[in-house]
From TrEMBL:
Domain Fructose-1-6-bisphosphatase class 1 C-terminal: 205-324
Keywords: Carbohydrate metabolism, Cytoplasm, Hydrolase, Magnesium, Metal-binding
Alphabetical GO biological process terms: fructose 1,6-bisphosphate metabolic process; fructose 6-phosphate metabolic process; fructose metabolic process; gluconeogenesis; sucrose biosynthetic process
Binding positions (Mg(2+) 2): D118, D121, E277
Cofactor, free-text remark: Binds 2 magnesium ions per subunit.
Pathway named in the protein's UniProt entry: Carbohydrate biosynthesis
GO CC annotation, single: cytosol
InterPro entries the UniProt entry points to: FBPase_C_dom, FBPase_class-1, FBPase_N, FBPtase
Gene that this polypeptide is encoded by: fbp
Record EC number: 3.1.3.11
Major enzyme class: hydrolase
Protein name stated in the entry: Fructose-1,6-bisphosphatase class 1
Binding site for substrate: D121, G122, S123, S124, N214, Y241, Y259, L260, Y261, K271
């Protein structure tokens, strides 16, 4: 028999965000608005992505971005949508986007928060109809309200995130986020234009049978990682790797497993970026009972020295990440 949808279309993400705000005495509604803005932009992007193969926006632009990657039209469109939503919502003073060189000034000098965003993660997969994502982090700014923002607002350790999450544009579009009180997942119902709470209190299994890694440069991996991978194989674990970080990460959160992006000969600190990608996912991991490290330290405790900093990234089920740490 067909399994019926066990989550009634009950709690919308909007209601959930507001409810949470009421439970937090010092909350004033500004963070609520930031989350709503992100939700709105993600709906627009979800629509664009669903139509990408027809509208032609999955293709490349003539530009390279600041990380030396080819930029796609959808990368740019997604960046613009998030920026517009956050500018209109007026609760964010500045934005740092993976796809843009400088800090984006929203003109909202009096806002309390700043946002770091990877508008479209896994965008090299978009033209072959593979799932992509969005990753975001929200921080309280360090600079004074009413004054100009500064780069220091963005160079905070991940432990300072007040909210973080991702959107997965997959077979369904899903939003997964945390404000430091566990992790919740919402599934988008496109004909209603609403996200509904479908995965309350996500907990990553402590053990897992999956590992996700691009083994292309395995001969240059650190010994600890090579040993860990040998162990995974011996333990009969399965490999799963899409090449969209959000997808690979999400699978491991739900099923139990580990995601690895170690240093390689091409990228001596790994390929993934601490600010745009790793911090948000590390907060989700920890809030969901998992761990995220660079091999020696918690990702969240790394003090960034510059905005495009890369870090080795190992995130996933506790028992698996602990094995990596042991070395
Ligand atoms: P982005 O599309 O935002 O630039 O991110 C690309 C990242 C990440 O999504 C993915 O997991 C990783 O690059 C894949 O790297 P490899 O192709 O080296 O496996
Ligand atoms: Mn990119
Ligand atoms: Mn990315
Ligand atoms: Mn990206």
């Amino acid at each position: 028999s067909v399994n019926t949808f066990t989550h009634p279309l009950g709690i919308t993400v909007d209601r959930f965000i507001v409810q949470n705000q009421h439970e937090c005495p010092e909350a004033t509604g500004e963070l609520t608005q930031v989350l709503r803005d992100i939700v709105l932009a993600s709906k627009i992007i979800s629509r664009e992505i669903n139509r990408a193969g027809l509208s032609g926006i999955e293709g490349l632009t003539d530009e390279e971005n600041v990380h030396g990657e080819k930029q796609r039209m959808l990368d740019v469109i997604a960046g613009v949508r998030f920026t517009r939503a956050l500018v209109s919502g007026r609760q964010v003073a500045a934005i740092l986007s993976e796809e843009r060189e400088g800090i984006i000034d929203t003109g909202n000098k009096h806002a309390k928060y700043v946002v770091i965003i990877d508008p479209l993660d896994g965008s090299s997969n978009i033209d072959v109809n593979i799932s992509v994502g969005t990753i975001f982090s929200v921080y309280k700014r360090i600079s004074k309200h009413g004054e100009d923002f500064s780069i220091e607002d963005f160079l905070q350790p991940g432990t300072n995130q007040v909210a973080a999450g991702y959107v997965l544009y997959g077979s369904s579009t899903m939003l997964v986020y945390t404000t430091g009180n566990g992790v919740d997942g919402f599934t988008y119902e496109p004909s209603l234009g609403e996200y509904f709470l479908s995965h309350p209190n996500i907990v990553q299994p402590e053990y897992g049978d999956y590992y996700s890694i691009n083994e292309k440069n395995q001969e240059s991996f650190p010994d600890a990682i090579r040993e860990f991978l040998a162990r995974c194989k011996k333990d009969n674990m399965s490999t799963r790797y899409v090449g969209s970080l959000v997808c690979d990460f999400h699978r491991n959160i739900m099923k139990g497993g580990v995601y690895l992006y170690p240093p390689t000969s091409a990228y001596s600190d790994g390929k993934l970026r601490l600010l745009y990608e790793c911090n948000a996912l590390a907060m989700i991991s920890e809030q969901a009972n998992g761990l995220a490290t660079n091999g020696n330290h918690r990702i969240l405790e790394i003090c960034p020295t510059w905005h495009r900093q890369r870090v080795p990234f190992y995130a996933g089920s506790k028992s698996l990440i602990e094995k990596i740490r042991d070395h």
